[in-house]
Amino acid sequence: MGRTIHDVLGVARRALAEDWADRSVPRAIAAEMRKNWLRQQALREGERDVRAGRGHAPAPVNAEDVPIVVEPGPAYALHGATPDDVRAILRQLPPGSLDGLREVRLAFDRTPAERATVRCPFTGRPARELLPGIFAGRIAGQYDRRVATIWLYAVAGDPATPAPLRAILQVQALRTLIHEAAHHFDHTFRKQRSRWATGERDKHEAWAERVEDEQAHELIAPYLRAHARERCAALAQWVAELAGARTRPLVELCGPSPVPVFGLVGAMHRGEPVVAARVAYARALHRAGHNDEATAVNDAVLAAHPDEPDALAVRACVVMCADQDYEGAERLVQRALAIAPGCMEALEVRVRSLATQERWADVARACADAIAHTPPGTKPRRYIVETLAEAEAELRRAAST
């Protein structure tokens, strides 16, 4: 049911007054109308501000003129980015995007992490262990629109933290800078005149994340290759030793999904089995679209362990997705299941392959098989359950035509 922000509260009153078999329908209409009324008021207020001169354009700002302030902090405060790093990235942002920005501040956030996993040995507060021996607080940074200031927060760690970890922190800090600069632009320009999305925080966050992903690849990776060459080389060598094959960790960290490197480092730090950690890394690389690197890591595992079922499942998934070789993927799945009939990764790859081919009867059987092999005490994988429902719906639709 499409409605515009010009719908009035009278629509809500009429909906509530009418007789409906399902009372949730008028309540939903009334809630939507109230939201539209609030949006309408926000739009009107924004237009009044503009017409009254309160919505004037912000003062032009050159990247060279933005003050970068490093606040005093404890000796264990590790800043991923230096003022020179910050200035270099600000210089590369689109012209005009910094207009109205007052300053960038590098500080140490003492706020406890909301989803704490450990207690920080440096501060004694709940924290997240972002990397081995490195502890993060609540957030990595923020933009305060009231004072038009970007804050980048340090993590807690040993000042002698090795170069590979420093490289990861540097990427993360610069990504945060780009993200918060996007919020500045959003609040200063895109929201200067109130919009339909007024007050919808998730949309603003999604937009900032999209800008971060695009500009991290375009700006951060080239900058670090040129100005932190030794640190980047140390990172590549370290990850290669952990993974058993050469990958491109800088590209991964600057891409839309920087998860794979963190997953590998964390698994090794926790003492998880090396083979399992490497296979999980290969799988994460594949899901992030780094198929060449995923294949290199996974093939190194299979060279030493040719009957590793999870590695065979990863290989099958790459073959299916990258090469669209469904027969080849099925052969690998069969091999994995012959070794471990309950290999959930292989069972899921089979379901994905059949669903991609829209072989719905086979999909339903494969889903039922995967559910039957789900370990006792655990729930079936969500993808399997949802795909089974989709297959059954498609089969009913076919039977009715």
Round the Cα radius of gyration to an integer and report it: 26 Å
- The number of distinct helices, counting runs of at least 4 residues, comes to 15
Average pLDDT reading: 87
Number of domains: 3
**Contiguous uncertain segments of 5+ residues:** 1-6, 193-199
Helix proportion of residues, in percent? Answer: 55-70%
Q: Termini distance?
A: 28 Å
Strand coverage percent = 5-15%
Number of strands: 8
Order of helices and strands: HHEEHEEEEEEHHHHHHHHHHHH
The outline comes out as: globular
Structural class: alpha/beta
Largest sheet: 5 strands, mixed
Architecture overview:
Strands 1, 2, 3, 7 and 8 form a 5-stranded mixed sheet that branches. Strands 4-5-6 form a 3-stranded antiparallel sheet. The chain is globular and about 65 Å long. Mean pLDDT is 87; it is low at 1-6 and 193-199. The two termini are 28 Å apart. The longest helix has 28 residues, at 24-51. It is of the alpha/beta class. Helices cover 59% and strands 8% of the residues. It has helices spanning 9-17, 24-51, 83-92, 163-190, 201-227, 229-243, 249-253, 259-269, 274-287, 291-304, 309-323, 326-339, 344-356, 360-372, 382-400; strands at residues 68-70, 77-78, 103-108, 118-119, 126-131, 134-136, 141-144, 149-156. It folds into 3 domains: 9-51; 63-227; 228-305, no CATH class.
